[in-house]
Design goal:
The protein is mainly alpha-helical. It is built from 2 helices and 2 strands, in the order H-H-E-E. It has a two-stranded antiparallel sheet with strand order 1-2. It is elongated, with a radius of gyration of 16 Å. The two termini are about 30 Å apart.
Amino acid sequence: MGKLTLYDISIPRETIIEARENLYLNRTPEQRFFNVLQLNHISVIMNGGKPLKSPQGKGIVIRKPSL
């Protein structure tokens, strides 16, 4: 799984954004793809085993489940 990074609030937001962007851009397209799949897997686990969004009929229209 991934890792959680906690940032010091005294660090300017722009510095954090730049560092995260550099990390992202240094990854290969394959690594980026698998990171998206990993995030999707984590979101399903955190939602009780149900996807956050699901297909709605035909086509690619998606909806959020009603609570």
